[in-house]
Amino acid sequence: MQSVGRYQIESEIGRGAMGIVYKAHDPTLGRTVAIKTIHLTTVTDSAERERVTDRLLREAQAAGTLSHPHIVTVFDVLHENDFAYIVMEYVAGSSLAEMLANVQLPDRGELLVWLRQVAEALDYAHRKGIIHRDVKPANILITASSGETPRSAKITDFGIAKPISQETTHSGTLIGTPSYMAPEQIEGTAVGDRADQFALGVVAYQALCGRKPFEAESVPGLLHKICSEEPRAISNINPALSSTVNKVLARALAKRPGDRFPSVSDFVGALSIALAENEPAPGRTTVLVGEPPEPSPAAGSSSRKLALVVVLCFAVAAAAVFIVRLNSGQSVPVQVLETKSAPATPPPAPAPAQTTQPASSAAKAPASAAPKRAASEARPPAAAPASVSRPRGVIVPASSGAQLGISTADVDLVSEPSGAHIVVDGRSDASCNSPCTMALTTGRHTLTAQLNGYATARRIFNLPETRTLYIPLERSSGTLVLTSIPNGASVSVDGQLYGQTPITLHLSPGIHQIVLTRGALEHHERVNVEADGFDARTIRW
After folding, report:
1. Which of the listed CATH numbers 3.40.50.1820, 3.40.1050.10, 2.30.30.30, 1.10.510.10 matches domain 93-279?
2. Looking at residue 380, what is its pLDDT?
3. Quick check: is 134 catalytic?
4. Among the ranges 100-104, 139-143, 160-164, 357-361, which has the highest mean pLDDT value?
């Protein structure tokens, strides 16, 4: 092919599911254009061919009403014989799909710029009553840098866009690329502008970690996951990303459109703040309500003070454990756990009734020696003495680890603050309230520590390598991301000033009074924060 109408074909620049894209020259206006060709005879069903042709006309009509610096402009539409041709703006550069295919994950700052540009373009189209319905990396074109002009993003291919006011697609017809389709597109229900937000959420997820949030070996399996399963936490794939990033993406990828952000720009704004948590920058602050904000002297001095506090905490914890071990008068609970089944031999007969010696006798040996003494004095129950000395608070099962021939070791468990309920290996019979000491079988163990008002802490440790486990607990909180248009509004929480928008607040659960101030303007909101919850709000003045 050498020409289409007045346009002179120069080279092929890409192929899609329904046609080829050429680079061409418009001699009348003296400009380079891109021509998307679609071979209509590939659609054998006459009714379906009519629908495809109608979609092409809608592309020209929809894109022709859109004038935005980050939307590829459609110039002309031609229909000759069995071909349709869409003439559009030529963008020198490459698509985001090509970059991802070559494992060229974009720089985080540059990616956010591109996402923000695409979000602005989509929001602009949504205000015009048009949704894209096929947002994906292949439809995000990245311009080539020119001198001091940085690369930018443009979204293309509104070929399957349609006015929001129209009804859904023909029954049984899926329009879009499966990996980026929102649940409502798959289920055939009404599709609104938040379907584009879902798709851009998938794009952002993929660009940040190199994988898609939903993957399966077959299209039916993929569609089932999109509609029924939660996306994988991106921090599990890219540990450099914070839990706030998980929450932002989870909201953009929510199954119900109403649970997503109000607009695509709101989503990208919240994502930019969440990503800034890993790279602190001026104007962005992370604070915990209930504690005064950090002063802003030299960062080096603050870091040294923080390090000193951490070291002192560990020193105090170690000293407490040392004192507990030397002073048997303190009540330190000890448990000997049975993690293996008993031998097939009949269990020993119950020991005769025992009496407990006065506390003064029990105080002669440290609590941690109880399991060792049981191991060295393991004899048939008939030979057991009539009186056995036990430290107060010791929990001894019917058969000790030594009697079963199981190797055990002591581990001291200390939480800050104390009083946390500690459960080892998910077993109700392997629990205590810190500070405490447990005699556990050697090997790998898991642990959870829970205390009202604090987030659950989890640890994995190995015995006998780990003999003391210090567990600092963080107060449970919810995350609130606040942005404003324009940014720079002062933010007060419960009467205390915490900084300016954009800002990420980690708030204690409950009702909080939020006040944003910009000059003489004030905006008041009461926010109900849930433990481990996430909310993002944008204030437009």
Report:
1. 1.10.510.10
2. 40
3. yes
4. 139-143
Which residues are within 8 A (CB) of 184 and not within 5 positions of it... i.e. 6 or more apart? 190, 191, 192, 195, 257
302-339+394-475: what CATH class? mainly beta
**433 CB-contact burial (10 Å; exposed 0-12 / middle 13-18 / buried 19+):** middle
346: CB partners within 8 A, 6+ apart:
none
Identify the CATH class of 477-540.
mainly beta
Catalytic residue among 26, 123, 134, 410: 134
Element (H, E) at 256: none
Q: Give dist(CA 153, CA 393) in Å, integer.
A: 67
Whether 477-540 and 302-339+394-475 are alike in CATH topology: the answer is yes
DSSP per-residue codes, 270-337: HHHHHHHTTS--TT--EEETTSPPPP-S-HHHHHHHHHHHHHHHHHHHHHHHHHHHH-TTS----BB-
Does residue 354 surpass a pLDDT of 70? no
The full set of domain ranges for the chain reads: 1-90, 93-279, 302-339+394-475, 477-540
Which alpha helices (H) appear in 426-508, and where do they start and end? none
| Nearest Cα to Cα of residue 13 among 100, 127, 91, 84 | 91
Measure the N-to-C terminal CA separation of the chain; round to a whole number of Å. Answer: 55
- Tens-place pLDDT, residues 67-76: 899 999 888 8
CATH topology of domain 1-90: Phosphorylase Kinase; domain 1 (3.30.200)
Whose tokens are 């602050």? That residue is 285
Coil, strand or helix at 78: strand
For the chain, the average pLDDT equals 76
**Tens digit of each residue's pLDDT (9 = 90 or more) over 400-430:** 444 556 788 999 999 988 999 999 998 988 9
Only one residue has tokens 């021509």, namely: 35
Indicate the pTM of the whole model.
0.57
Residue 267 has pLDDT above 70, yes or no: yes
Rg of the chain over all Cα atoms, to the nearest angstrom: 33
